[in-house]
Amino acid sequence: MEKSPDAFRTISEVAEELDLPQHVLRFWETRFTQIKPMKRGGGRRYYRPQDVELIKGIRHMLYDQGYTIKGVQKLLRENGNQFLVAIGNGDLAAVEAIAQRKQTEAVELTPASQPRPGEEEQLVGQPKAKPSRRFFGLGKADDDGPVQADGGRLSRDNRALLQEALFDLLECKRLLDQVR
C-alpha cells in the first residue's frame, strides 16, 4: 500500500527513497538546523514532506554538485530553504526566480543599509590591487609593511588580496574534498 504524498515518513523510508544511510540523515540534522523531523516516543523520527524535499536538495548539492557542508549551509543562509527544495526537484524556473529576486533585493539597497562614510564595506569579487613586492614583505623597511601604521589594520588593497587568496584556498579545499 502506497502512502499519501502528504504523509509523514520514517527515517528508514526517507533513507530508502533518497538512497542514503540512516546515520547520514541523523548527522545532517546536526549540521542543518532547517531539517527538523518530528520525534515521537522512543526517539522515532517522522519526516514531513517539506523535510524530505529539503533533504533531497541538500543531497543533490553535496553528492551531485560537489559542495561541502559549509557551502550548502551558506546557500541555505543566503537563499533560503525554497531554493534548495527547487534544486532538489529540478525546478530550474523556481531557482532562476529566487536568484532574480535576490539580485533585485541586492540592487535595491535602502539608504539605511548602505555603508555610512567611514564604515568598512565587505570586499567581494576581484581584488582592487595587484600583488606587490611590498605586500609579500620583499624590499620593505621594518616599519613599512602590509599593516598600516595607524591602528595596526590592513589597508583596503591588502585586505582585498587576502580575501582573494582565501577564496582560492577554499576552492582548492572544495576540489580536494570532492576527490576524496
Automatic annotation (TrEMBL):
SMART domains: HTH_MERR. Keywords: DNA-binding. Signal peptide: none annotated. Residues 10-78 form the HTH merR-type domain. GO terms for molecular function: DNA binding. Residues 108-153 are annotated as: Disordered. This is DNA-binding transcriptional MerR regulator.
